[in-house]
Amino acid sequence: MPERNPILVGLDPEQRAAVAAPRGPVCVLAGAGTGKTRTITRRIAHLIDRGEVRADQVLAVTFTSRAAGEMRDRLRALDIPGTVAAQTFHAAAFRQLKYFWRRAPQGGQWQLLDHKLPVVGRAARRAGLDESVETVRDLAAEIEWAKASVIGPEQYAARVAALSRETPQPPEKVAEVYAWYEAAKISPEGDRLLDFDDLLGETVRILSADRVTTDEFRSAYRFFVVDEYQDITPLQQRLLDVWLGDRDNLTVVGDANQTIYSFTGASAHHLLEFTRRYPHAELHRLVRDYRSTPQVVELANQVIGATTERAPGTRLDLIGQRPPGPEPRPAEFADDRREAVGVAAQIKHLINAGTPTAEIAVLYRVNAQSDRFEEALTEAGIPYQVRGAEAFFTRTEIVQALRGLRAAADRPDLPAGVDVRKVVAAVLAPLGLTEREPAGTQARARWESLRALTSLIDQIVDELPRPTLDRVVAELALRAQERHTPSTQGVTLASLHAAKGLEWDALFIVGLTEGSVPITQAVEHGDDAVEEERRLFYVGITRAREHLYLSWSLSRNGGRATRRRTRFLDGIDLDPRRQGRCSACGTQLTTPESRVRRRCGSCRMEARDEALADALRSWRTAQAEQAQVAEHAILTDAMLEAIAEQRPTDVGSLQAIRGMGATKLDRYGPGLVDLVKTAGQK
User: Quick one: pLDDT band at residue 110, thresholds 50, 70, 90?
Assistant: First the structure.
């Protein structure tokens, strides 16, 4: 019988159950590629369609403007009456503050602080710290973490000590900067500057302080949805609690396996504890992956399945729903340059085979790794764009370094035959190239960039027949000029963090060595940090739709290997020649027929439903006669036997059989599924 409710049409059983759940607390654990946005927007539309809530009484919050915009677009496409408020936490709080601030008892005006770094810089100076860009940025990031974690200046030092948190400056100094920063935002007249985190905190304060204001807000919004709930911070949870009050009309969606922002204060704790907080809540799991091929999904499951501690809410073993594709391809290189050149060559092959450049991406752990791939792609004539960071030669520290090297090369007293590497080291040391890796995110990123520059200079020195500082600087300037050309279309270069929420047909995850993935400081900080690195790698893998390439280099300078492949690939079969194993006994499959059946010869007869096989042969003969084609054009013998062995009872399972493409699925899928259900074994 056809589905009468168009909102539920096209949903799989798990999505449908989540969408049709009654009002009240609902938790949707949605794996990567399982259609979470589709599910939550349909759920909102379903509740509105049933008259349980009006559109203007729904507040849906997410973590990026792009995700909020996509949610609004999908809701509009469903043609529901009214407009749902789909916003980020900060946008929602900003809107509420503008409305409710006039009722706040403290008086005065407020203004949004767009650029906090100058204020943090002045606070750093008052605390006796330097005002370098890296120091100020690290202090600003630490203050943001403290606010997101609901930690004030007075509690900061004690809390970071209890958490064993690495801080960019001594904790007492950070607390002092934090206190000066907060004081600097209040004028003598009582006017205030509010940063983004203050938007949340002040909204909590105002809604908590005045019952009339709170009642007005709660009468306006009666149903709440939170996307990416694994990324919620304590401050955001506190705001959500104020919004809700004692109500429980809340739907949350998330995946603890994609928790990769703990350094900002985010935690999957609230997602995993949701059913304890609301014992009567409905829990739904989405595990059918519509984004990636079964081969990519299998690798992702293996990587995340090896985690040392899996909470119950993280056990989402994905099931690939797309037709089979190529196996993930590993590649090992002798050094970083060969890796970059090899990746560029493979990208060239993909482009020549018809893959658009916009559907190809290269992901790495830190932004400083982009330079060699920028260079290799430029040399190969492949356009690219760097996402989430400046292109290598436009970074502040690299511009400063090139300026300093040019000045050193122009010095009239520079001795002839001077050791170029020694001059480079002397110029870069004051800019942040220390012997040991520094603490602090920004300082570490600067250090990584300068270290990458020295590696590039080493390569140029080795390539030039008579290297001088002047010639090296000229070569650097040429390479910088070549990469200043803007590119709006092309291969995407991005960090693993910046790739969250995106997807590509072909994906290269590079630099997969210990010290990079997992990054060194994560190893130093213990198992929890290492497991977050595993989740970050998992998120990267699940960005690939079809082609997935994994690569690493064992040495920067060739010769003996100085690095080893990431531990996250230990125990995983990445032989590019592997075409699958027998689903019954695990034996490697070596013939095309066995790969279609997913069974080896010895297991083939045990599992096959002979009555169903006979029915399928009769069906195939009838279809071939009707279409006036050969029988094997309808189904090959191997495909017929695979259906008889695997007995797929829905189109999603049927499309996992090799050779069952979109045309065959559209033409024969429903009939084959009905035949499986009615013929043979009962």
Answer: confident
Q: Which of 142-151, 195-204, 310-319, 611-620 has the highest mean pLDDT?
A: 142-151
Q: Provide the 8-state DSSP code for 108.
A: S
Q: Which residues of 202-221 are buried (b: 16+ CB within 10 A; e: fewer)?
A: bbbebbeeeeebbeebbeeb
- The answer to whether the CB of 394 falls within 8 A of the CB of 449 is no
pLDDT at residue 606, rounded to an integer: 43
**Residue 71 tokens, joined:** 């949610």
Q: Which residues contact 149 (CB under 8 A, 6 or more apart)?
A: 159, 233, 234, 235, 265
Sign of CA dihedral 155, 161, 166, 169: positive
3-state secondary structure of 671: helix
Cis peptide before 438, with omega less than 30 degrees from 0?
A: no
> Residues 207, 217: contact at Cβ < 8 Å?
yes
Give the model's confidence band at 484: pLDDT under 50 very low, under 70 low, under 90 confident, else very high: very low
Q: Express each pLDDT in 497-516 by its tens digit.
A: 989 989 999 999 999 999 99
Alpha carbons 422 and 431: distance in angstroms, whole number: 15
Q: How many CB atoms lie within 10 A of CB 570?
A: 9
Is pLDDT above 50 for 259?
Answer: yes
Q: What is the pLDDT of residue 312?
A: 58
Place of tokens 């974690």: 149
Tokens of 629: 């084609």
pTM more than 0.90: no
Residue 344 to residues 301, 380, 493, Cα–Cα distance (Å)? 28, 7, 12
DSSP characters for 65-86?
HHHHHHHHHHHHHTT-SS--EE
Q: Which long-range contacts (CB under 8 A, 24 or more apart) does 111-115 make?
A: 111/191, 111/192, 111/193, 111/194, 112/193, 112/194, 112/195, 112/199, 113/185, 113/193, 113/194, 113/195, 113/198
**CA-based nearest residue to 275, from 29, 576, 573, 442:** 29
Tens digits of per-residue pLDDT, 153-167? 999 999 999 998 889
In this structure, are residues 14 and 284 in contact, taking their beta carbons and an 8 Å threshold? yes
Model confidence pLDDT, tens digit, residues 521-561: 888 888 888 999 999 999 999 999 999 999 999 865 545 66
- Counting Cα atoms < 13 Å in the Cβ hemisphere of 376 gives 21
What secondary structure does DSSP assign to 241-284, as a single string? HHHHTT---EEEEE-GGG---GGGT--SHHHHTHHHHSTT-EEE
Q: Which of 41, 94, 61, 70 is nearest to 237 (CA)?
A: 61
Q: Give the pLDDT confidence score for residue 296 in this predicted structure.
A: 94
Report the 3 state secondary structure along 562-625. Answer: CCCECHHHCCCCCCCCCCCECCCCCCECCCHHHHHHCCCHHHHHHHCCHHHHHHHHHHHHHHHH
DSSP 308-342: S---GGG----EE-SPP-PPPEEEEESSHHHHHHH
Helix H or strand E encompassing 60:
strand 58-62
CB atoms within 10 A of CB 622: 12
Residue 217, pLDDT above cutoff 60: yes
Strands (DSSP E) contained in 396-510 are 491-495, 504-509
Contacts of 567 (CB under 8 A, 6+ apart): 514, 518
Whole-angstrom distance, CA of residue 400 vs CA of residue 392: 12
Position 8 scores a pLDDT of 86
N-term to C-term CA, the chain? 22
- Residue 251: name the closest of 68, 44, 15, 69 by CA: 44
